[in-house]
Structures
1.
Amino acid sequence: MNRPLEFLGPAIELIGRNASVLPATGGAFEEMAKPDVEEADDRFFGGAKEAKEGFQDFAEFPAPGWRELYRPTPPVFRSKKHVFRYFCDGSIKTYFLGTIIEGDRSYPLELTQIGSAIVHRKDDGSLEVAKLERQLLLLVPYKDGRGVSESLYNDLKRMQTPVFRIVDVAVPDPLSERRQDPRDKSGAKARFEMHMLEKRLIEEFAPNRKPDEWTIIDGGVRRGEFIELSRTVGVAKSFDRTPTFTVRKGYRGTIRKDISALLAGLEYGCRTAAFFAHGGKVAFWYVRLRPQGKVDYPLMGVVKVEVPTPDEKPISTELADNLSSALVGERNVTPHGLDKRWHAHLYPIFQAERVIKANFFTETVLFASIRWPKPKQGLLS
Amino acid sequence: MAQTKTRTVIMNAESNQTEQIGVSVPANEIGNMPGQVTAPVIGKTSATERDANSSDKFNFWLAPGQIVNPFDIVEDEHLGKAFDKDGKPTDRPSKTYGLVTTIEHRTDSPNHLANYVSSNFGDVSETEINTPRIGTNVAKVNVLSNSGEIYMPLQNDRPVRFASAEGIAEALGIDAMAERNRIPAGLIKMSNGASTVAFLDQEFILGPEGAHINISGISGLATKTSYAMFMLQSILQKAERTRDDEGKPLSEKIAVIILNVKQGDLLQIDQPGAQPSVDQMELWEAMGLEPRPFRNVRYLLPRSNNPGMPNSFLQPVGYQTYAYALQDTADKLDLLLSDVMDQSGAMDALVGDIMQGIVNREASFRNTASWDNLLNGEPLVKNGQTQKWGDHYPSTIGKFRRHMRRIVRTRSTGLFTNARARNEMNLAEQIREIEGGQTYVVDIARLGEEEQKLVFGDVLRTVYELKAEDPENRVTRKPIPEKVIFFVDELNKYAPSGSKGSPVLQQVLDIAERGRSLGVVLFSAQQFLSAVHPRVTGNCATKILGRTGSSEISTPDYRFLDDDLKMNLTRLGKGELIVTHAVYRQPVKIIFPRPAYQQRQPGT
C-alpha cells in the first residue's frame, strides 16, 4: 500500500532515538492561529518608522488635496473589463509534536504543512488551478546553538525531499525575529516560509501572464521580501488598525487622521487616497467593497490594496481608480457563511485557499505517520 | 457539452511527485488507456464523508455542461475481472453499471442567505457576477450490476461513461436471456442519443418462471391500452419467428382474448391504420418488429334490445353476437350478484341452491327455462307472492328477485334473453373453442356494470377451466392453446383493493396466482395501482408505470420504487413508460411505437 508520508516516519524515529521527547498529547495537535495574526504581520511588515510616525506621503499622481481623500470607484465588472485574472493565496497548518530535550537544551518540535496556489479565472468567470505546491516543514531551532544538536540537524537535513524540508527557526526573518515565545516563533517562521513559497510561485508563474492580465495576492506585497512584479496587487482583508495618516503638512498646519477616522468616512464603492509605505517602495490605499449599513461595524467590508512601486514613484490616480473599480466589481459572489472574513474576502482567493487545504494531508494521515519510539527505561528520570 | 478539460493538478497527493501539466486534454481521453477508444467520460465518481459510495449506490459529479437524466445507465471500470457468459473470469476489468436516479446541483453556499448576500445584498437587478459560485451537478446512481459480480463500492474519482448498448444489456441481465426468450418491450433512449432495445424474458411473461403484466397510469395519455396492444403484437410477432421442436411457429400455440371496455377502441385491431411516420417506423424497425394490425381476429359483441343489432359502438366486419339465456347463466349467477351486500350469507346460500337446481334440473326447477320463469314462477313465487323455498326465507328470495329483475330486466342493456336466437352465441362455448393463433375481442363497452362483471368472470372462468380441466364439451379437435393471454383494462373494477372477496375477485386471484403454471396470462391495466388487489399486482412479474399523480405514488403500493425515481412518474410524457421486470435489477424508462391498427372512431 502506498504510504504518502513515508519520509516523515524515519525523521521522527531519528529524533526519538537521539533525543528525549515529551510528546504532545495524542502524538501531535494543531496549533490554532491567533485571529489577529494577519493584522499583526501587517503591522510588522509596515515598518517601525511608519508605525511610529504614521504614513506621510501621498503615493498617487496628481496628489490629492487634503479635502479630497476619497474617490468614487464604481464597480467595473468582468463583462466590461476583465482586469484580475490570477489569484494567489497561501495556507498553513502547524502541529506541535512535542518538546525535545537534548542535554540541557529543550525546544519545541513543530510540523507544518504549507501550500500556495494560483487560480486562473477564465473568460466565462469559471476558475481553474494554474499552479499549486505543497510542502511539509519540520521546524527546529539550530543556528543560535540553543536548539537541536549539529549532528542531529545534519542527519535530519539528509532526509529532506523536494516536499519535506527541515527549517531552522533560529535563522532570522522579518516575521519570526520579533517573537519571543519559541512556539510563536516557529509559527511565524512557518508563515514566513509560506510567504516565500507564494512569492516563488508568483514569480515563476509571471511569464505565463498576458500583457493586460493582473494578479491579486492575498495580503500585502511584502512577503519578507518585496514582490516587485508588475501588474500585481496585494489585497489584504485584515490589516493593521493602528497607523495614522498625515493628510496635510506644511506652513498651514499638519492634519493627521488615524485609520478609524479615515475608513469611517470611506463610502461604499470608493477608495481612499494612496499613501507610500516601506520608504516609498509600496503604494497602498483602502477600498470599501460593502456598504457600511450592511455590515456589523464601519471598518468591515474594507480591503487594503498594495501596489509595488520599486522605483518609489507615485502611481497614477487613474490606475488606482481602475484597480479599485475592478475590485469593487469582485463583490459577487462572497464566501458568506463559510468564512467570517467574508465581507472583505475575494471569492477567487477563497477558492485558492480551498484548493490548498483540499490538498493538505488530513490529520488522520499525518498523525498516523508520527510514531515516537518507546522511551528507554529511566531516560527522562 | 464540455469537450476539453484542463488538467491542473500539480501535486499528486498519493505519490508526492510534483507534476506540472498545464496542457489541455480532451475530456473524453481522460482515464482512457493509450490507444483505447471508449465512450467519452462524463464525470467522475465522488465519495465524501457524509455521502459515501456503497455496494448499492454511488455518486458522480458531472463535467460542466454535461447532460444526464434520470434512468440513464452509466458504467465505470471497477476492481477485478469481468466474467464471460459462462461465468468464467476474462482479461477485461469488471464494470459496474448504474441507473441514474436523480441529479442535484451543489454549490459551496452554506445557505440561501449567502446567495442573497452574494447578489449584492439581495439586489435582484444585479446580474454581474465576476466569479460564479463554485458548483457542480452530482448524479445519484443505483448500482445495477457488476460484470465480475464484485459489489465493492466504487472508489472515488473514477471516470464515468454512458453505458454502451452491450453494457445496458449486461446491466439489465438481458445478455443472460436466451435469444428465443427475448421479447422486445420498447426502446431505452439515453441522454447521449444512444438507444437500445429493452427485452423482456418470455419465461417471465408467459410462464413458467413468472407471468402477467400490469400497467398503470393516469388516463388521457393513451398509453396503457396502446402498450398492452404493442406487447401483444410483439409477443405474437416474436412467436411467429420462433419454432418449436417440430418446426412449427410458437404463435400457433398462443391465443389472445381482449376485453374491449371503452368505445370502439379495440374493435378494429385487424384493420391497418394510417401509414406510420418515419419516427414511428424507426421505432418498430429498431425492435425488429413490423407495424401491422392483428391477424385472425374474432369479434364478439353483446346482444342489444334492438333486434338484430349488437350493443356496440361500432360493428366490425364479421362480428358475432353473444347473449345470455338463463341456461347459459345458471352456473354463473354468483358472478352476476357478486356486488350484492350479503353479510349473513343467506343470499349466497340461496344463489348456490338456485344454481344447483337449474344446472342439475332438479324437480322444483323443471319448469324454469327462462329468466321470466325464474323471477315470476315456482319455486320462488307462487300466485304472485314470494314464498319460502326450502330453508330460504321469503325476504331473502324477495331480495334475490329484486336484484335479478333490475339486472336482467329493468336495467338490462339487452344482454339477457329468455331464449337465444340462432345467431346469438353462448360466449363460454365460443371461448372454449379458441385455438392457437387466434385473437378474440369481446366487447363489453356498452354493458351495465353487473353485466360487465358477468362477462368478465365468465370468460376468465371458462379460460381457467379450459386450461385446468381440459373440458369434454370442447368441440374442436384442435389442441388447446398452450398459452392464453387475457387483456382487460380497468382491472380495479373486478379486483379492487380492500375487497374481502367476491366470485369475480376470486376468479382473478386464481388466474394471478395459478395462471403462471397453467399457461393463462393476465395482461391488465388500471389508472391507479393502489386501486387493485395487492395479491393480483404482487403476482405480476412485470409492472409498467405511466404518468402517475403525486398523491398516488405516495401510497405504499409504490414502495418497490426508489424515492428518487418515484417523482419521475409525475412527469412522464406520452409514450414514455417505466418498466419493472423480474429480470431487471432496476426499473428502466422506455418508449414504444403507436399501434399500427385502425384507431379512428366512426364519425371522427
2.
Amino acid sequence: MIEAENVHFSYPNKVEALKGVSITIKDGEFVAIMGQNGAGKSTFVKHFNGLLKPTSGTIRSDGVETTKSSVASLARNVGFVFQNPDHQLFSETVEDEIAFALKNFGFEADVIEKRVTWALNLLSLTQYRKTSPFLLSGGERKRVALASVLAWDPKTLILDEPTIGQDHEQKEKLRQFIMQMQTQGKTVVIVTHDVEFVAESNPRVVLMKEGKIVADGIGKEILTNPAILELSSIVLPQIAQVFMKLKSLGFPKNIIDIYEAKEIILKTLESKTGK
Amino acid sequence: MAIIETKDLTYTYPGASKPSILDVSIKIEKGEFVLITGPSGCGKTTLCRCFNGLVPHFYQGELKGEISVASIDTLKHHTYEMAKHVGLVFQNPENQLFALSVEKDVAFGLENVGVPREEIRKKVDWALNLTGIYDLRERSPHEISGGQQQRVAIASVLAMEPEIIVLDEPTSFLDPLSAEKIFEVIYDLNKKQGITVILVEHRLDLTAKYTNHLIVMDQGKVRLEGNPREILSSEETRLIGVGIPKATLLYQMLKKDGLNLNNSTPLSSEELAAQLLEALKSR
C-alpha cells in the first residue's frame, strides 16, 4: 500500500513540482497517472521508492515512511522503470543487465539464472541475451530496462511511460503482463500519455495538472470527459471521439471499449430500421 | 523524379550477424507525407539514418544497393552536405541536443551553413513559436522535460527549412494534445510548403490520417507499401502486428457484421463518425 498525504516537493532550483498531493493506492491496484508534460507525474512516482523525498507531507510505503528508509531497502518492494531506458542501462550484455540487481539483492546463482531466463523470455529478448543493450533499438532497450526490474519480482511496480516506442504486439504483451501481475495481487502504477493503452486496460485513472491531482476515477468516466481531459492536455481515445460526434443522435457518450461500441452501433441501427 | 529513391538497399551494422535492412526498394515523391511503421527492431530507424547519410558515414558497416536523396548519392556525400536537404529528428532527443541554451541549439544548424545573423534570429524565433517553446529559449536543453526536449529537436530541424524532414517517433514523450499540435504543424508545412515528410510511428491512431503513402516494414524488409486505406484494411498488415487505428478496426468489425458502410476505409474518428451519420440518415 502506498499512502501519500499532502505531499509537496520543490526541486533545488525552487521549482515547486508537487503542491499538496494526497492519494492511497491499495495492494493489487492498477493505476494510470496521466497529465500534461510537466504536471509532476514522474516527480510524484519517484517518491514511491524514495528516490525523491517530500519537502513537506509524508509518503508511506507499506506503512513505512520513505524518509525513514533507504532507497536500497525500498527498492526490494517497489521496482521502478524509468521513462528513458538510457538512464538505467549500463551493463555489457542484456543478460548482465538483468542479473545485476539480482546479484545485489544476494540471490543464489541458480536462482539468478532462472530469473534472467524467465525475464528474457517474457519480454521477447532471449535472442539478445549476449548482446550489448546499446546495440538494441529504442523499444528493445525499454524492454531490457523493464526485464531487469521484473526479474527481482517487486511487490509494487512503477512504470514511467512503459509504452513509448513499443509496437502493438509489445503493448499487448505488456497489458497482459500487467493483468497477470494483478492476479498475483501486485500493485502496478504506470505514468502514461497513451490514452489508447489506458482505454484498453481499464485501470483507475488519476489525472494531474500543475503539481496537483485534478481527477481520480474509472477510465470510462474520465476518458470520456472532454472538459477534464483538455485541462490535462489529453485527447479522447478514438472510440470515445467517435461517440462524441454521434452524441446528437442519442448515442451514449461514455464508451471506450471497441466491442461495446460495436454492439451499441448495431443495436441502434437495428432499432432505427424498426426490427 | 522521386525525391528519395532506394534500390535493393541492404545494410549491416559493424559486428552484426545479419542486415538491419534488406533489399529495400522504395520511391518517395516530393511533397508526400510518408508514414513508416512496423514492429520494433524492424529496421525503421536504420532506414531513416540512410536518408541523411548517417548510415554508413557515421555508423560505418556495410551498405549495398543504391540510394539517392534530393538527387544526391548519399554514399558519395557526407552527412553535413545532406543537412541542407534533410532534417532528421531522432527518437531520443537527448542524443541531439548539446548547446547551452535552447535557442543556441535551434540556431546551431543555421550558423553552420553561414546564414546571416538577422536571418538566423527570424528563423529561430519562427521555429520556437511554431513548436510552442519560445518561453524556454534561454533555458538549458538539459534541464527541461523529455517532451520539451523533443520540441527543441523538432524546432532545430524546422529552422533549417529542409526539403525533407525525417522524424523518428518525434513526439513519444509528449502528452497527446501537444503531440497532436506538433503533428498539425508538420502536416501544415507539408501541405503549404510542400516539404516532404517521413514519419516513423507505431501510434497510427494519432497519425494515419496525415499520410498518403504508408510503408510497413518487418524484419528489415518493406512488406507493404502504398495507399494507407488499402494497407490498413489488409489482413497481412494485422498479422505483421501493426496497431490498426481503433476507428479503422471498428469500421472493419461493423462491416463484417453486415453493416452497410461505404467502401472508403476510415483513418480517423472524424471519418468513421461521418460514415455512421450517413448510414443512419439513409435509414
